[in-house]
Amino acid sequence: MAEFAVEDGTLWYETTGDGRPLVFVHGGWLSGRAWQTQVEYFADEYRIVTLDVRGHGRTGETDRDRYSIELFADDLEALCGSLELESPVLYGLSLGSMVVQEYLSRHPDRAAGAVLAGAIRSMPPTWISPGVKPFLSPMPALASSLAVAGPTATFRAMLQSVRATTGDRWLSVDSDVRSETIDAVGDVSTSEFRKVFGALYRYDPPDLEGVTTPTLVVYGDREAPAVRQQGDQIAMAVDDGRYLVLEEAGHLVNQDRPAAFNAATAAFLEELDGTDATDRSIPT
């Protein structure tokens, strides 16, 4: 891995391969390893960059007292500039999809394409008036839970509240993926967990109308209905948006159905490159 200095910390990233750059931004409380199957699949044809977002993975804690999706997007911009990545294709998973949307709203045509997996616009994934949202904040309860139970138990409790309406396999249909995800959360400190959650909750999603970047939204059929609705909204808002549902997959759709996800996004990349993707089978 390599490191990239920012004003108040050091970001860790990894790059491999040559060709058109693909930049991968992981989900909340995960790390760049969440994209490992995609890295292995695409590295022979593309330049792959995976970033460990502040508070996550090798990057870990930075000096900021408060995080935001806008800050994470600033970091993404700075990294792309430092590596001189021209017309990258941006991949975002869950929290990472927010970061990519923020980037697209700032630069509607700078990226060659975007792939959003388990895409969310806001947290919770239902509309709440910005003027009311601060008064409904779960941050005090979250802080108490973190102080008493720690990040892993707090994350499990969050999952349980979602499962009440979506079923056991919402996060992932694969028990190994669920276990690895929960283990990754255990590597996040209490203070960083709180800052990341705050960034998710406070984010006010941008208007994506006018974004001309071709965008593919992919989610699993076990995804929470409100999240799927947000994914549909993204696909409809951008000028060249489309969405794909993969069966037997949950929120971590790229890990639940890696072969299907890779085939679908490879066909999308071939379309961006202007090559014939008609012979590539995309299982759903």
Characteristics:
8-stranded mixed sheet, 284 residues, hydrolase activity, 9 helices, hydrolase, AB_hydrolase_fold, 42% helix, disordered C terminus, 8 strands, AB_hydrolase_1, alpha/beta
What does it look like?
It contains nine helices and eight strands. The chain has helices spanning 36-42, 69-82, 95-106, 139-166, 175-186, 190-202, 225-237, 253-256, 258-273, and strands spanning 2-6, 9-16, 21-25, 47-52, 89-93, 113-117, 215-220, 241-246. It has a single domain (2-273), classed as Rossmann fold. The protein has an eight-stranded mixed beta sheet with strand order 1-2-4-3-5-6-7-8, sandwiched between helices. Helix 1 (36-42) links the parallel strand 3 (21-25) and strand 4 (47-52). Mean pLDDT is 92; it is low at 277-282. It is α/β, with parallel strands linked by helices and 284 residues long. Helix 4 (139-166) packs antiparallel against helix 5 (175-186). It is globular, with a radius of gyration of 18 Å. Keywords: Hydrolase.
- Beta-strand segment tally: 8
Number of domains: 1
Say which CATH homologous superfamily is assigned: Alpha/Beta hydrolase fold, catalytic domain
Dominant shape: globular
Secondary-structure class: alpha/beta
Terminal Cα separation, in Å? 34 Å
Using the coordinates above, name the CATH class.
Alpha Beta
CATH architecture: 3-Layer(aba) Sandwich
Q: Major β-sheet, in short? A: 8 strands, mixed
| Average pLDDT metric | 92
CATH topology: Rossmann fold
Strand order of the largest sheet: 1-2-4-3-5-6-7-8
Estimated share of beta-strand residues: 15-25%
The SSE string, one letter per element, is EEEHEHEHEHHHEHEHH
Helix percent reads 40-55%
The helix tally amounts to: 9
Low-confidence stretches: 277-282
GO molecular function: hydrolase activity
Organism: Natrarchaeobius chitinivorans
Domain AB hydrolase-1: 22-264
GO cellular component, one term: membrane
